[in-house]
Amino acid sequence: MSLSATIIGISALVALLLLFIILHSCSKSSLENNNMYIYSEDVLSENEELFLRLLNDDREFNNLCTLKPDEYAGRLAYLKNIEMITSNTLSHDGIKERRQDMFDRGVKLYNEIIGKGYYSMKGAFKDFKNSADHNTIITDKRYNAIGVDITADDNGTKFYTIIFIQI
């Protein structure tokens, strides 16, 4: 096994351990509100706010409800991005576990879209809309909350994980 493969393997294990610690250190009671979730736009970066605004403008145009940011879903999206950055792989690995975690918290419906490399929020949103599979998720009327994370790697390449949920 080469040194670089060993380093990548160790990095992936560290990321998974971090994910486990963070997910299991947050008790449900710390996230409780009316529906066990804290809605907060304070947790969004400027890019995430812009992306959410583009998405909600599109949903309003299509007579759909706007999506409220969900802090816990946003945290899961962030951890997914860190996992993809660490492994340098764009994938939905772990979606079953994230979905089950949200179901255990009372979420009725879960889906996610991921992307990499877009330099503008408008470009990213346009490409997601132009993907039939992604657009189906974006325009699904059943979703009412969202977790948004946009994180750049050391080279400035942005990774996007958008989690759609119905509470």
Short summary:
By secondary structure, this protein is an alpha+beta fold.
Topology:
Elements: H1 3-25, H2 46-61, E1 68-69, H3 71-87, H4 95-104, E2 109-116, H5 121-130, H6 132-138, E3 145-152, E4 158-166
Parallel strand pairs: 1-3
Antiparallel strand pairs: 2-4, 3-4
Structure explained in plain terms:
- The protein is of the alpha+beta class and 167 residues long.
- The chain is built from 6 helices and 4 strands.
- The chain has helices at residues 3-25, 46-61, 71-87, 95-104, 121-130, 132-138; strands spanning 68-69, 109-116, 145-152, 158-166.
- It has a 4-stranded mixed β-sheet with strand order 1-3-4-2, sandwiched between helices.
- Strand 3 and strand 4 form a beta hairpin.
- Helix 1 (3-25) packs antiparallel against helix 3 (71-87) and helix 2 (46-61) packs across helix 5 (121-130).
- The chain is globular, with a radius of gyration of 16 Å.
**Largest sheet, if any?**
4 strands, mixed
Distance between the termini: 46 Å
| Strand order in space, largest sheet | 1-3-4-2
Helix amount: 40-55%
Mean pLDDT: 83
Which terms summarize this structure?
alpha+beta, 4 strands, single chain, 167 residues
